[in-house]
Each structure stands twice: as C-alpha cells, then as structure tokens.
From TrEMBL:
<feature type="domain" description="C2H2-type">
    <location>
        <begin position="211"/>
        <end position="230"/>
    </location>
</feature>
<feature type="domain" description="C2H2-type">
    <location>
        <begin position="8"/>
        <end position="41"/>
    </location>
</feature>
<keyword id="KW-0862">Zinc</keyword>
<protein>
    <recommendedName>
        <fullName>C2H2-type domain-containing protein</fullName>
    </recommendedName>
</protein>
<keyword id="KW-0804">Transcription</keyword>
<comment type="similarity">
    <text>Belongs to the krueppel C2H2-type zinc-finger protein family.</text>
</comment>
<feature type="domain" description="C2H2-type">
    <location>
        <begin position="42"/>
        <end position="70"/>
    </location>
</feature>
<dbReference type="GO" id="GO:0000978">
    <property type="term" value="F:RNA polymerase II cis-regulatory region sequence-specific DNA binding"/>
</dbReference>
<dbReference type="GO" id="GO:0000981">
    <property type="term" value="F:DNA-binding transcription factor activity, RNA polymerase II-specific"/>
</dbReference>
<dbReference type="InterPro" id="IPR013087">
    <property type="entry name" value="Znf_C2H2_type"/>
</dbReference>
<dbReference type="GO" id="GO:0008270">
    <property type="term" value="F:zinc ion binding"/>
</dbReference>
<dbReference type="GO" id="GO:0031519">
    <property type="term" value="C:PcG protein complex"/>
</dbReference>
<dbReference type="GO" id="GO:0000785">
    <property type="term" value="C:chromatin"/>
</dbReference>
<feature type="domain" description="C2H2-type">
    <location>
        <begin position="99"/>
        <end position="126"/>
    </location>
</feature>
<keyword id="KW-0539">Nucleus</keyword>
<feature type="domain" description="C2H2-type">
    <location>
        <begin position="71"/>
        <end position="98"/>
    </location>
</feature>
<dbReference type="Pfam" id="PF00096">
    <property type="entry name" value="zf-C2H2"/>
</dbReference>
Amino acid sequence: AYFANLDFQSTVSLGKKKCGKSFRRQQDATMQHRVHTQEKPYPCQECGKSFSRQQSTLTRHQMLHTGQKPHCCQECGKSFSQRSTLSRHQILHTGQKPYPCQECGKSFSQRSTLSRHQILHTGQKPYPCQECGKSFSQRSTLSRHQILHTGQKPYPCQECGKSFSQRSTLSRHQILHTGQKPYPCQECGKSFSQRSTLSRHQILHTGQKPYPCQECGKSFSQRGHLARHQIKNCKQVLT
C-alpha cells in the first residue's frame, strides 16, 4: 500500500506539472496522466488499435468487430454498436440542427455532416476519381460520379422504364411525367420542366448565338436549331 501510494503521489505530481489538475482517486489521476503521455496500454486483438481505457473505450470498440448493435432507437428501430452513435442518430428524429456553419449559417443535425459541408467553403476537393482524375469535395458525390464509369443505371423510372445512373437525374426526369413546369423564365414568363431547358431558352433573350455552322458560318442560339439547319441546308449532321 505504501508503494502504491507513492506511485499515486508521483502520478498526481506529474499531472499537476502538466496541467495543474488534482485528483482524489488514483484511477482519475492515472487516466489524466495517460492523456499527457498518450499512453494506450489496451490494444484490440482484432485490429491492433490501442486505447487508454479498457472497460469503456476498448470494450465499445470491440463491438464493431463482433457486429453487435445493442443500442436500439425506440423511434425507428435502427440499432447501433455505440451508445454515442445512437445519441447522435436520435437528434434526427427531433428535427434539431444544433451545428451551424459559421460561414453561411446553414445548420446540421450531425457534427460530421457540418464538417463535410464546410469543405465546400474552402474549395478543397480531396476526393479524386481514379478513373478520370476529376475531384470532388464530398465522398458521396465521388461515389455517385463513379457509377458513370461502370455504365450502371440503377435508378429506373417506374412510369416509363427508362433508367438513370444518378438518382438526381431520375428525379428531374420524373417531372416530365407530372406535367409540372417549375422553372419559369423571368424575362418572358414561359415555364419549363427542366432547369437545363430554361438555361438554353434564356440564351434567346440575350441575343447570343454560340452555335456556328462550320459549313456556312451562320450562327444559332440553340444547338437543336443548328442541327436542323445542317441537315436541311448543309447536309451535315452535327457531331
């Protein structure tokens, strides 16, 4: 007991020198000591990652390897291996968004979602596509982009059967079946079902004609107009 007390006093003394904190229990002093020394004496036998606490941190981590998910959300039934992950998930059901972006004011329910969002403001694109070299600010955006290279089209339209590689493209396509035209032209009031169609239409109001015929030099405001001209007058199909 005498030597154990000396060891405790030594740990407390070191803790005071490092951060000035004092502790009544040896366990608390030891844990604070490990914070300063970065000692992690409890390795995971499965993956080798080490932890400073055995009963709490290491034990929770090991559940990831067993596949156990003992923490269940009473709202939706989804289960989690970590109590802290469940707590973060439950915020989604409350509608709370306690993590605001200091740059634009937009708020998020998850700290991790805020962190991913903030990359947009830095202009960084840390996720490159190994296939074509194009980079993205979000890992999820990269994943959606990579589907283009596989040729897969996993999003079918239930109305007509046409399939798409992107969920967002399917959503835009489905508007065609509803007859909705949510994109009005501020210049003339004409509305369109697709934002891209509106953009092409707006060129008419600017007077620009960015599509020249390589055969005769005549220019057009719409690519479709150029194609019709080439077939009718210049006998050349736009490539």
